[in-house]
Amino acid sequence: MEENSSKDVIDLVFDSKFRDLRDAIAEKYFKGSARDTCLFALSLGIRFNRRAPRKSWSKQKPLSWTDLNRLKADIADFEVLFDYMDLDDGKMSTKERIDEFVTGGLIFIEENDIVEDGSLVEIILD
């Protein structure tokens, strides 16, 4: 069996407009981990159904935070999760869905000032 080549890497990205916000959240809550911050944003995006369609992103080059194969190996197979949660409508790839949920989660973080002290308690679950 052949090892994955670099062309098999599928970068997961988010709207680079949120680079500073991602970095601030990473430093404050996740010991500087960009990946963990994006996973947090992904969870918020999924929880609050906040997808940000790629066409609404800034025109800057999107920022990569990990690749799909690494995420699948280290964390979970999000294709299975999306299918289980009935979030897979078949119209977009798992990668595109993750990208949109991460960016949507970052928008949620920005709108709710979660980088401010005490703001995590503001996340109210229904």
Keywords:
126 residues, mainly alpha, two-stranded antiparallel sheet, disordered N terminus, single chain
Overview of this protein structure:
The structure is a single chain. The protein is mainly alpha-helical and 126 residues long. It is 45% helix and 7% strand. It is built from 5 helices and 2 strands, in the order E-H-H-E-H-H-H. The N and C termini lie far apart (47 Å). Mean pLDDT is 88; it is low at 1-6.
Short account of what is shown:
The protein is mostly helical and 126 residues long. Helices cover 45% and strands 7% of the residues. The protein contains five helices and two strands.
Question: How are the SSEs placed, and which strands pair?
Answer:
Elements: E1 11-14, H1 19-29, H2 34-47, E2 63-67, H3 68-74, H4 78-84, H5 94-111
Antiparallel strand pairs: 1-2
